[in-house]
Amino acid sequence: MIQSLTTALSRDDLARRDAEDPLAPCRELFQLPQGVLYFDGNSLGPLPKGSRDRVLEVTDKQWGQGLIRSWSLHGWIDLPRRVGAKIARLIGAQPHEVLTADSTSVNLFKLLSAALRLRPDRRVILCLEDDFPTDRYLAWSLSDGAATDHELRLVAADALAEALRDDVAVLCLSHVHYKTAALHDMAALTRLAHEQGALVLWDLSHSVGALEIELHGVDADLAVGCGYKFLNGGPGCPAFLFVAERLHDEARSPLTGWLGHEEPFAFADAYRPARGVDRFACGTPSILSLAALDAALDVFDHASLDDIRRKSLAMSESFQRLVDERLPDHRLSLASPADPTKRGSHLALRHREGFSVMLALIDRGVIGDFRPPNLMRFGFAPLYQRYTDVWDGVEILRQVLEQELWRNPT
Ligand SMILES: *Cc1c(COP(=O)(O)O)cnc(C)c1O
Fold first, then answer.
1. Torsion angle of alpha carbons 282, 287, 292, 293, nearest 10°?
2. Helix (H) or strand (E) holding 379
3. Residue 153: predicted pLDDT
4. Active-site residue 137, yes or no?
5. What residue spans of 223-304 are helical by DSSP H?
6. Whose CA is nearest to atom 10 of ligand 1?
7. 3 state DSSP class of 274
8. Is 132 a catalytic residue?
9. Is 241 helix (H, G, I), strand (E, B) or coil?
10. Cβ(124)–Cβ(150) under 8 Å?
11. Residues whose beta carbon lies within 6 Å of some atom of ligand 1
């Protein structure tokens, strides 16, 4: 009804939004290749110019000239905490509650294991049956896989509440689902888990940097997240972990490496955990990629998460509308929640030939990605994408589908 009363969205409409966009200047902060419309910032963020410069500086000056002195001279030893403090601002945490370390997968293992020790009288790890595989695999390694007496309970999203019974030690859940972009209600689920005496470990990989997160506001226990998606920290850069201050004395890391020791440079015989979140460090941090992430986070000094979220919603709504208006017989179906406020910052569209269609798009400079069996994902990253990119991307999708260009992959 409403659709028929309004005129179709035009490229000019979107160009006007670009002209009024408070985030438009941020695009300049990235080094973007010519001729590419990038819809995959949810999987690998592009290169911030600041990260490129920082890596060169750290390589030439700090490593090249400073050598081992740079651990103190250039504060390498504190870098995981300093970068953690920057991330804390994006997730509603206190600076001393966040550490950058290892990969998301390793951090999941450390915090899941810590959660089980914090609830010794409970046996169940609760996960979503179709959550990101690494989350489920690691939960499995701490249950049947490692011959412990824990149980991995896998349920569908609509059965989560019911499965949260008083035998659950920890609920481990992605804030935004990696395939469908479905956004979980963090406040409601955390409250529900706490009512049952369970802890929650939130995986923020697909939400950090894309929308406002208030870990303190929801009384969150534990969280992990990825540095190379919406945070643009570069391929394989360190991930982060969050442990609420109220758990700092009790929570223990299963990986008792020397850099998680209270006094690593005392080289003591016995392990004594460092205070607070530092005990979740394990080995030597990857300084080069941590430096890239550090500089990438400075981009967020130029943009509020509120503006980022507002633009992301407008972009994904426009994409959805253009697909409906301009590709009426497209044989595409929406795999994401129809309400933009119920999803993170990407859209998943099903198409029987989704894989070939995505290859044809990438051939023509429209880079999204594909997840089996038939999902094409289009990410929205308001820091560097323009509203007109949405128009142009959908236009190329229209050509690929109408002319069946996906039939001849190159
Ligand atoms: C991207 C992603 C990860 C990545 O884990 P790595 O250890 O960095 O490979 C983990 N969990 C979720 C939900 C993700 O989206």
1. 20
2. strand 375-379
3. 96
4. no
5. 287-297
6. 104
7. coil
8. yes
9. strand
10. yes
11. 103-105, 132, 134-135, 174, 178, 203, 205-206, 226, 239
In angstroms, how far is CA 254 from the centroid of its own chain? 24
Report yes or no on whether pTM surpasses 0.85. Answer: yes
Distance CA 220, CA 215 (A): 5
Q: Which among 39, 56, 59 has a CA at the least distance from the CA of 48?
A: 56
pLDDT tens for residues 99-127? 999 999 999 999 999 999 999 999 999 99
Residue 179 annotated among the catalytic residues of the structure: no
Of 398, 393, 341, 388, the closest CA to residue 368 belongs to 393
User: What's the CA-to-centroid distance between 309 and ligand 1, angstroms?
Assistant: 21
Q: Is the pLDDT of residue 283 over 80?
A: yes
CA of 228 to the centre of ligand 1 (A): 9
Q: Of 119, 121, 215, which is closest to residue 171 (Cα–Cα)? A: 119
Instruction: Using the mean position of ligand 1's atoms as its centre, give its distance from the Cα of residue 50 in Å.
Output: 24
- The tens digit of pLDDT for each residue in 220-246 reads 999 999 999 999 999 999 999 999 999
Q: What is the rounded CA–CA span in Å between residue 69 and residue 76?
A: 10
> Residue 226 C-alpha to ligand 1 middle, in angstroms?
6
Kindly indicate the confidence band of residue 7, based on its pLDDT and cuts at 50, 70 and 90.
confident
Residue 319 tokens read as: 């994409």
Which ranges of 133-273 would DSSP assign to H, the alpha helix? 133-141, 160-163, 186-195
> In this structure, how many other beta carbons lie within 10 angstroms of the beta carbon of residue 165?
13
- d(CA 379, CA 392) in angstroms, rounded, equals 14
Give the residue, out of 105, 134, 371, with the most ligand 1 atoms within 8 A of its beta carbon, to mutate for a pocket test.
Answer: 134
pLDDT in the model for residue 64: 98
Q: Which amino acid is at 311?
A: K
Q: Catalytic: which of 132, 230, 242, 355?
A: 132
- Ligand 1 atom nearest to 135, measured from its CA: 11
Q: Which long-range contacts (CB under 8 A, 24 or more apart) does 152-156 make?
A: 152/124, 152/125, 152/127, 153/124, 153/125, 153/126, 153/127, 154/127, 154/128, 154/129, 155/126, 155/127, 155/128, 155/129, 156/128, 156/129, 156/130
Pick the catalytic residue from 109, 178, 228, 280.
228
